[in-house]
TrEMBL record:
<dbReference type="GO" id="GO:0003723">
    <property type="term" value="F:RNA binding"/>
</dbReference>
<dbReference type="Pfam" id="PF00076">
    <property type="entry name" value="RRM_1"/>
</dbReference>
<feature type="domain" description="RRM">
    <location>
        <begin position="4"/>
        <end position="35"/>
    </location>
</feature>
<dbReference type="InterPro" id="IPR012677">
    <property type="entry name" value="Nucleotide-bd_a/b_plait_sf"/>
</dbReference>
<dbReference type="InterPro" id="IPR000504">
    <property type="entry name" value="RRM_dom"/>
</dbReference>
<dbReference type="InterPro" id="IPR035979">
    <property type="entry name" value="RBD_domain_sf"/>
</dbReference>
<protein>
    <submittedName>
        <fullName>Serine/arginine-rich splicing factor rs41</fullName>
    </submittedName>
</protein>
Length: 46
């Protein structure tokens, strides 16, 4: 699955915050964080 980009994120945001925020839409498989932005991917069932 392609990673999803999110920008303009607080610099003190943690990976657990991101996973908690987006897990209502599916199982978060991966989070790659940089300063003020991140990419994440959902687990694909097929």
């Amino acid at each position: 699955m392609r990673p999803i980009f999110c920008g303009n994120v607080e610099f003190d945001a943690r990976q657990s915050d991101i996973e908690r925020l987006f897990r209502r839409y599916g199982r978060v498989e991966r989070v790659d964080m940089k300063s003020g932005m991140f990419f994440f991917s959902y687990f694909c069932y097929y």
